[in-house]
Design brief:
Layout (H helix, E strand, L loop, with lengths): L14 H5 L4 H20 L6 E5 L4 E6 L1 H4 L6 E4 L11 E3 L8 E7 L6 E10 L3 E7 L8 E2 L10 E5 L8 E4 L4 E8 L14 E4 L2 E4 L5 E6 L8 H20 L2 H23 L12 H7 L22
Antiparallel strand pairs: 1-14, 2-3, 2-9, 4-5, 5-6, 6-7, 8-9, 10-13, 11-14, 12-13
Helix pairs in contact: 2-4, 4-5
Length: about 300
């Protein structure tokens, strides 16, 4: 559809074009598609791009028993790397089959994708392997696993806090393009959404809360796109392809103008109709005044129940 906006028969995409995985048309579409889509997602808070996830720790510390450490086992800090198919992070380092290899991951239950217990694989002495299923929380692998009959093979896993200012750091989901809000509550909001201070640095989200739940914008599949969002994307992608495939700067300028003056504003306008955001509050004290069970409110605006939501 983006190529059809360029208006030249030699630029029309066919099934054979992509089946061959070659040619100028394929190369240019493949070059610009993902980057253009991510740019559009970051431009606005799109309903069709929303995702939610409880976050995993960004960095953990592995402290193995001395019998592992002295035989080439890994000890030290590990940063959350890639993700499993269930979007749970993997902590790994080293080469599998050699001493010092570590892999800590969380499997998904096959029927609904629900995360299960963490699995911990560690190798030492070249070929000796220890596989352990950790009985801990689903989203944090921290714990002391040096007890019981496996004392000699035990390991302690702790969370590594940021260097200063914050108590916890979490891994930004690998499919996140724009973070919307963070909260420390998993339950439904009956009154107001608690305000949680947080800060993003690279692939980390820093906060002072032990649990973190992130609402964010992810890259949507074509079948999940809202029709007006898709139309804006088509126009934006056509602009990116107009010069490399058609060599027409005037057409590119017209497509960019259409995108910013018509396609994007209309998609944003309609997108705003389909939600009612729960307001945030500035403190627990303010929240208490608003959610009071009192039949009458003696507070002065903006703290009275009757005037809440009318900050003008």
């Amino acid at each position: 559809m983006a190529l059809s906006r360029i208006g030249n028969e030699r630029n029309q995409l066919t099934e054979a074009t992509f089946a061959s995985n070659s040619g100028t048309i394929y190369d240019q579409c493949n070059l610009h598609y993902d980057q253009t889509l991510e740019e559009l997602v970051r431009m606005h808070s799109w309903n069709c791009c929303k995702k939610r996830k409880q976050l995993n720790p960004y960095k953990i510390n592995i402290n193995p028993h001395s019998s592992i450490d002295t035989n080439g086992g890994f000890s030290g800090d590990l940063i959350a790397g890639s993700t499993e198919s269930n979007n749970m992070v993997i902590y790994t380092t080293g080469t599998e089959g050699q001493a010092g290899y570590i892999k800590l991951y969380n499997t998904a239950e096959t029927t609904d994708g629900t995360p299960q217990n963490w699995n911990f694989k560690q190798q030492y002495s070249g070929v000796t392997t220890k596989n352990t299923t950790l009985t801990t929380t689903l989203f944090s692998p921290a714990g002391d696993y040096a007890g019981g009959s496996s004392t000699s093979l035990g390991t302690t896993i702790t969370l590594v806090p940021p260097a200063f200012e914050y108590d916890y750091s979490y891994r930004v989901p690998s499919d996140a393009i724009r973070s919307f809000y963070l909260t420390n509550e998993a339950t439904a909001y009956k009154f107001l959404k608690p305000r949680v201070d947080w800060y993003m640095e690279g692939k980390e989200i820093l906060t002072n809360y032990e649990k973190a739940y992130l609402c964010y914008e992810g890259k949507p599949e074509p079948t999940d796109m809202d029709s007006l969002f898709a139309q804006a994307f088509i126009c934006f992608l056509a602009y990116k392809l107009a010069i490399p495939l058609h060599g027409d700067r005037r057409l590119a300028a017209e497509l960019l103008k259409e995108f910013y003056e018509f396609a994007l504003p209309e998609a944003r306008r309609v997108n705003g109709f389909e939600r009612l955001a729960t307001p945030e509050v500035d403190s627990e004290w303010l929240e208490a005044t608003i959610t009071s069970n009192s039949a009458y409110s003696n507070s002065y605006p903006p703290f009275s129940q009757t005037s809440y939501g009318s900050f003008e």
